[in-house]
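Box 3.1 A note on notation
Throughout this textbook, protein chains are presented in two layers. The first layer is the amino acid sequence; the second is a token string describing backbone geometry. Keep the layers aligned when reading.
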Amino acid sequence: MSWDFVVPVSLDDLLKSGAINQYVVQDVLSPKQLPSHLTALRSQGPVLPPLFIILYFILHCRTVDLALKEDTLEGLSVSLPSLLMSGTLSAADRKQQLNAVKMSVFLLCKLTENLESDSCRESIVTAPSKGRKKEKASGKGLQQWDSERETVLQCLTQLLQLDIRSLWNLSLVEEEFVSCVTFCCYKLLENPTIGHMKNKPTRDAIIHVLGVMVKKYNHMLGACVKVIQLLQHFEQLSSVCAQAVSAWSSEYGVKAIVGEIMREIGQKTSDELAREGSGVKAFSSFLSELSTLVPEAMIPNISVLLTHLEGESASMRVAVCEVLGEVLVRVLSGDKLDDSGRADRDRFLDTLQEHIHDAHSHVRARVLQVYSRIVNSKALPLCRYTEVMELAVGRLGDKSVLVCKSAIQLLAAFIAHNPYSCKLSSVDLKKPLEKETAKLKEMRENMSEKAPVAVISAADLWAAMEPEVSHTVRSHLEAGSDAEREEDDEEEEEGVQDRSDRDTAIQIAQYLRHNKYRSSDCNFLPVQGPEENQASEPVASDQPPTPQKEGGKAADEGKENELKKQEMLVQYLKDTESFALQVERAIAVINNMLYWKTTTVVQEAVQFCVTAREFSVADSVCGVRKMLPLVWSTDAAVKDAVVQAYRRLYLNPQGDSTRAKAQTLVESLSELMVDASLGTIQCLEEIVSNCNENALQASVVQVLWERFSGKRETSALHKRAAVLLLGMAAREVVLSNLDTLCSVALGEKVTEDYLLARDTVITITNITDHQSKGVPFRLPVDHHLFSCLTQAIADGVVLSDPHWQTFMEQAIRLIYFLAESPDKLCARLLQRSARLLLEQVTEVCCVSLAQLLSLCGAVAFWQVSHLERSVSTELRRRRGEKEEKEEKEKGPVGKNKDANDSCVEEELGLTGASAEDTEAEFIRKICETELLADGNMLSVFLPLLVKVCSSPGRYSHTQLTTAACLALSQYMMISPTVCKDNIRLLFTVLEKSSLPVVRANTIIALGDLTVRFPNILEPWTPNLYARLCDENASVRLTAITVLTQLVLKDVMKVKGQVSEVAVLLLDPEPHITSLALNFFNELSAKDNAIYNLLPDIISRLSDPERGMKEEDFNTIMKQLFSYITKERQTESLVEKLCQRFRTAKTERQWADLAVSLSLLSMCERGFKKLQECWDCYSDKLAEDAVYQPLLSIMAKLRRRAKPQFKAQVEEFEKKLTVVHTKGLENVENEEREQQLEEQTHSEKAQTPLPKSARRPTRGNSLTYAFSHGLSA
């Protein structure tokens, strides 16, 4: 074989003549010749030129059938692995085999690419088709190609794993061959469905082929470049590419490829990433996915990615932060890190902490999520807990909802995985910390007192002093005369005789310790020579220590260890307290998030509160109780979150038996019921009804009965909780055991615990209130229950129990709910109470009289409610039964006649109206004429109420005045006549009373009267608004609450007095401020409500008599103008505010109007309206307070204006500036003069010239021109 096959770049290159001995396709078959030559494919083994021509034509011709291509591909796949011969080959055979391999691989790859393109094209074309036949046919072809695709890849893998490199000279495989195989694989990866789960075998096969090419055929650099290109153009391949790179690194050992790809991505500049578009997302997803697969391989090159943290691409910053987080969790965690690993860990954590404050909200959120993963994996060092916790708490105030949600999740992870304690309460930790700190201080003081001087061994001491001792000895021996030496010797001999050797040694040691070497030598030299001295000291130092010294040293070491342990304990308690304080700080913020409008944030806040409660964090109960009203939320997700939270905290009992579980459940619920308000009880009732466990119900009821009846010793609080829980869990049981309830809670000992009696009455009332429709359930007047109630109420009138009032109100309510003739029963009760009051006290007590008046008011109120609710309902029920009975008695003829009459009534809109009106008129007449008639018991107390309320000087007792005013307002609910007669008195009490509680109660009563008799109360509306300026905060709070309800329910018309509500936006009480803000938020939902009120509010607030500060006015207006969002409203307000400049009299009013204009979100139409109203405010522009706000309007308009409109704005701004600097009069004078000059000039131009001047002759033309030029 004298020719060589060179793998071409494209098919057409085979038709061109190339280098010497290069194979060229010369004979191209026609489509008719193709069938006769196809039989040779199966008979001939290797792909030689005749067969190659046939296969080349199949590739080259576009009209070849898809089935034929698939058959050809199958044949090539079968014959490909058998191409290589075994054993040694000659040069000619090797060349022939090499050509056959290259031809076969080339044909196989190109045919695969061709079929892949046809498959993708077919899937795109047939995707929108609706016909079943087309879908079936196309689906079958695609499915067949999917299976054949795997076969081709398996054949390629088998071939490449053989030793085909020996076919090439020096085993250097040519680049074209490698590119042919890899290009085919990358082409298959471009399939949009390659990432689907069904294509996993194909995907793995492609990765395997490319892995062989990377490892054996030097394709690493090419693979890096191609991966980058795929990520740039195919965003969906990010996960596939990450899996491929991970496999090449771990399975094939090509770890360098991870670093190469990371360097390629790291070298991308911000400008390049900005041009990439979807490629940036693919890069970030690729890095994130790769970090989860091979985090160890990314550490050596992670520095090249850190440059992107300073770039503009938020997606890349997110990816780098996720890579850092994955490395920290998977690699750089644990206590076995070396110094380098710790340094990297700290550096990465510092980087993450910096980006908690990233400019982009998505980055901030993802960093917090990364930290959540780190904390959940226990990979965060303990020393960083407090710091990161503080940063997370700060992010709770982020503007982004996603960041807030992520911050809550991180804080919950901190609590759930905290290394400190299962109970995080700074209050509980304070005492142990103080105790252990005092103990540590005491230990340190003891150690400082008993601490010995630093012990230095004798050998070390002698080594330090030996040079100076030797020098001193030599100088002593050499200096001085012999006579002096003799004298010294004599003196020393005398001294030596006087003392022993031990004394001498002690003195020498003292001299040496105090560096008195000369003195020591004087004592030392006569006794022994220098050599002996030098030898003796080390001998003494080398003596073994005594047992007493060893014991002392061991004791000292033990004390030091105890001191270190104590220091560690104190530090641990300090860290725990600091952590608990951060958690409590977070709770205060998250509790307010429970009522956000974003459902996901509310759900996360609920979960956080549950976690905090499980770890007994201080104030966590506040959050748990605060979420309770959310059980009424219209959002099903929020409601379900709250129900599940309470189920997890309180309704998931633990115990070995059913009895133990029931006791645990009752204990949990009793904690919630203690000191719970009525609203809390209703919320709990809803939750219990949603979480009713049938398996535990009988046991729970039994435990509750035991607690309530006193069979088990329990506290009064738990008794009350038990009876309330009985009403929630077992209504039928309670209703059938009324006698037991009466004997336990309403019997002889009722006066000892009115709270238990009250809660028992509430339980019975709620049970009867939930009765089904039909004949109402009522008990006879002589029932034991009513006897107990009336006895308890009457006896309590003459007592001074503070809880009698609430019991009495609930008892009267129950009487009107259950008794057959509640009016007669209550009349007897009033008569009995009054008699007891007069009999038992010689001088009427103010407290007893106040309680009697409260009883009268409660009876009056519930009497009216009984008539309008129960009696009216019963009348409608009886009327309905009567009509049904009449219809049954009537025959078919009567029915047809009635049907005709009813049709006429329906057309007139009178169906059922006449009967209901008659019933309403009947009840109204009873209230007007009978309730306060002379024979009725209620009428007896009305004059007394009026007298007490109208004589505050005489009846000055606080409780009496409060009760009388409240009872009078309840009497006024009976009829319009009573209301008209006493309305002036009630408003007088509202304005003149010195008691805040009386004023607050009166406001509530007047709110109810406004709902009942709106026409009577309408003239008194300004008096109600006036209470918004009350000096007492509780009165202002009550006023804003009542007025909000009246206005938002359209009971009271919104007028200019709303300006008083606007003033409360600056109230010093935060609760009042929030209510005022909520008022305007709700009012803005009504069409044009705030828009219509704004001009009047501005006029009232800018009134000089009010004297409001300029800063306060600006703050209020800024809030109110934020509700003006419509362009038409803005335009109209500009005109209205400009017109008010004419009526404004003071400079302050001008300034307020100008500021109001500047707060509007001005648009082009508003700007034109501002120009049209120039005459309204132009004469005020000399004032800076008017000029500056208008100038700020021009600045805002200029920022977002188009070129043409921007020119108009700038021109108008110049006009404003000129008028401000020169004054309007001077500018107008200048404009008039300019207009006169222009007019004069135009008149001269229009004046006709004389005839002699019109057509000058040639002789005088020069004179004409010169004269006119001078005049000009």
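Residues 707 and 1219 are 85 Å apart (CA to CA). The chain is about 70% helix and 0% strand.
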